[in-house]
């Protein structure tokens, strides 16, 4: 009986410890997944996000892989291909182009 009481106490103690462990909410996890450093087309304007701060893109940028992004939304890939970003398109600092609606 004494062992049963000790076991029950140990289980109760571990349950209270688990109940106090904070779980990350899904909204916080989603906000952590936001793009940190990228350029994107938003409402017809090129925006630059650096360290969580978004501002209008004021000059052309060259990404790590050699891709050039112009302030008018034109992207010139390292291999010479060009494309025009649409609303929701973004270019990561690595040079990869993504669409925010697909992320």
From TrEMBL:
Pfam hit, one: DUF6799
Domain DUF6799 residue range list: 37-97
Origin: domain of life: Bacteria
Name by which UniProt lists this protein: DUF6799 domain-containing protein
